[in-house]
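Form 7-S
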Amino acid sequence: MKERPSTGTTWLIVADGEHARAVTPAAPQGQFRTVLSFDSVTAHLASHDLGTERLGRVHESASTTRHSIVPRQDPHTAAKHDFMLEVASQIALHVDEFDRLVLVAPDHALHDLRAALGETPRAKIVGTLAKDLTKVPDHGLMPHLSEWWHMPVDAA
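Output:
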């Protein structure tokens, strides 16, 4: 998605289901610096730490048969969704610190994050990129973004 021409501060939210950071252009050569960083407290927990590992059981009323109850959502998927809600709330707390917002995340996280954002931050979105760049350091972001990122004239 192309970036709209505008003036002011641009934040890129680089996220996945367990880690997120807000980076901003730091120099005209395409360097970035992290301004905020978030990590999920459930990122490295096992399933039994997030909830029960085994499916619940119910008894058939007419016989001795037992059936398992399938959970509505996997605990890890639920934790990742909850983390995106937390990232969205943190973005909302800092909404006055940026004029433009670019979301960079894998498809599932991008969808959850965009849906969780309030009206004001959502109105500032000027671009999205469906890529997982959370493990890429700030100085290595530009090659991944160069296909669509054009440094704003005022970002010096």
